């Protein structure tokens, strides 16, 4: 198997956090003799500036060839006023759908060293380890018809369509059940089946797949409004949560905040064969770009997810996660996770400390 990575630094803090992650990748590649190779590409605002498109053909060719992609983040005020169809975020959506990256995995793990950073009481979040599996290429974000039309009375009306085929539901549910096998053996499927037919089919399909192929997994169902509430009331009741694109978007941000800092959370978006794009959950943070203060740990932990899920290098993945735990134990903190008595460091210093902790 070739082991080639496409690195897309993107915009804002993207280049800074990706540089730190690349140093970690270099070290782990040597240490574990992984044989990984990589090249750089352009996506988002950086690609608009160079090629007039957020996802140019040259990037598309590189992305198809790669086994995995590492992304910083895209977007920023510089491109917010250009025509909607060629904005940076459109490039990212196109890339995800072109590569069929339908399964978005977002772990929300609380590092015990950062329990104080959560807005919830430590006893509610200590030991938190949830995996949100969000369907990423279907549902209301892509459903047709969509648009803004004019009614007969001259009033404007906005409309979108939430659609899921059985096959789309099955493949994302399968990912959730497979992940649960590797973790706590529990899946909670989130829907709004009391109101929306599309999620009634979701619930039926998940239930059927469970009965046919995963009876050993503990499956439960929850309405999305209750799930939003339970996530802040008693989040540790969850192991794997699986849901559609819209509900997943919202619940995964809510779960992220339980851990205190979005700068700590990695994510993976996978296709059916384990090819994946790995990126931090946060955006390009234009407000702090270029100041060497962004937290690179989410991007570094995204490299760990890449090694685990695409390249099946568990030992190397675990080594990165342990190294991150180690630098937190040393008291090193970027500004977003800083607390009293800790040692404040910049993006570069944090990256170098993780490299050093890898040994
Ligand atoms: P954001 O995540 O970029 O920033 C939200 C807040 O969190 C800001 O105060 C920022 O300074 C802080 N923050 C984010 N990452 C951080 C880090 N690593 N370390 C320390 N602090 C961090 O979200 P936003 O402000 O809503 O969006 C900014 C831009 O990012 C927009 O153009 C948006 O479209 C884009 N965006 C891109 C992606 C992506 O590329 N996947 C995702 C979300 C937003």
From TrEMBL:
Family from the record: Belongs to the isocitrate and isopropylmalate dehydrogenases family. LeuB type 1 subfamily.
Coiled coil, from the record: none
EC category: oxidoreductase
Top-rank lineage group of the source organism: Bacteria
Note accompanying the cofactor annotation: Binds 1 Mg(2+) or Mn(2+) ion per subunit.
Keyword line: Amino-acid biosynthesis, Branched-chain amino acid biosynthesis, Cytoplasm, Leucine biosynthesis, Magnesium, Manganese, Metal-binding, NAD, Oxidoreductase
Gene: leuB
Residue sites binding substrate per the record: 96, 106, 134, 225
A Gene Ontology molecular function term of the record: magnesium ion binding
Name by which UniProt lists this protein: 3-isopropylmalate dehydrogenase
Reaction catalyzed: (2R,3S)-3-isopropylmalate + NAD(+) = 4-methyl-2-oxopentanoate + CO2 + NADH
Cofactor: Mn(2+); Mg(2+)
Site (Important for catalysis): 141, 192
Annotated metabolic or biological route of this protein: Amino-acid biosynthesis; L-leucine biosynthesis; L-leucine from 3-methyl-2-oxobutanoate: step 3/4
Domain Isopropylmalate dehydrogenase-like: 4-354
EC number assigned by the record: 1.1.1.85
GO biological process: L-leucine biosynthetic process
Subunit: Homodimer.
Location within or outside the cell: Cytoplasm
Major localisation: cytoplasm
SMART domains referenced in this protein's UniProt entry, alphabetically: Iso_dh
Binding-site list for NAD(+): 76-89, 283-295
Function of the protein: Catalyzes the oxidation of 3-carboxy-2-hydroxy-4-methylpentanoate (3-isopropylmalate) to 3-carboxy-4-methyl-2-oxopentanoate. The product decarboxylates to 4-methyl-2 oxopentanoate.
SUPFAM superfamilies to which the protein is assigned, alphabetical: Isocitrate/Isopropylmalate dehydrogenase-like (SSF53659)
One Pfam family per UniProt: Iso_dh
GO cellular component terms listed in the entry, alphabetical order: cytosol
Binding, Mg(2+): 225, 249, 253
């Amino acid at each position: 198997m070739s082991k080639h990575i496409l690195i897309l630094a993107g915009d804002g803090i993207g280049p800074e956090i990706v540089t730190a992650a690349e140093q970690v990748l270099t070290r782990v590649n040597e240490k574990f003799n992984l044989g990984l190779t990589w090249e750089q590409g352009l996506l988002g605002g950086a690609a608009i500036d160079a090629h007039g498109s957020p996802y140019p053909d040259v990037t598309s060719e590189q992305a198809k060839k790669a086994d995995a992609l590492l992304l910083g983040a895209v977007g920023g005020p510089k491109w917010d006023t250009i025509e909607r169809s060629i904005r940076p975020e459109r490039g990212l959506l196109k890339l995800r759908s072109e590569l069929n990256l339908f399964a978005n995995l977002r772990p929300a793990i609380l590092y015990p060293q950062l329990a104080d950073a959560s807005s919830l009481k430590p006893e509610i979040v200590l030991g938190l380890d949830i995996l949100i599996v969000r369907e990423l290429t279907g549902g209301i974000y892509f459903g047709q018809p969509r648009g803004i039309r004019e009614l007969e009375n001259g009033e404007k009306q906005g409309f979108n369509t939430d659609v899921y085929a059985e096959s789309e539901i099955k493949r994302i549910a399968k990912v959730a059940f497979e992940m649960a096998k590797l973790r706590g053996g529990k899946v909670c499927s989130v829907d709004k089946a009391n109101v929306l037919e599309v999620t009634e089919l979701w619930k039926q399909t998940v239930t059927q797949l469970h009965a046919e192929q995963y009876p050993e997994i503990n499956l439960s169902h929850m309405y999305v409004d209750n799930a939003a509430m339970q996530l802040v009331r008693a989040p540790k009741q969850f192991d794997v949560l699986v849901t559609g694109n819209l509900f997943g978007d919202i619940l995964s941000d809510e779960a992220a905040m339980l851990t205190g800092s979005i700068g700590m959370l990695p994510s993976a978006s996978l296709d059916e064969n384990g090819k994946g794009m790995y990126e931090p959950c946060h955006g390009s943070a234009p407000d702090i770009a270029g100041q060497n203060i962004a937290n690179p740990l989410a991007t570094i932990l995204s490299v760990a997810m890449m090694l685990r899920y695409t390249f099946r290098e568990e030992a190397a993945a675990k080594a990165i996660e342990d190294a991150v735990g180690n630098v937190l134990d040393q008291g090193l903190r970027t500004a977003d996770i800083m607390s009293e008595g800790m040692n404040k460091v910049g993006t570069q210093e944090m990256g170098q400390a993780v490299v050093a902790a890898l040994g």
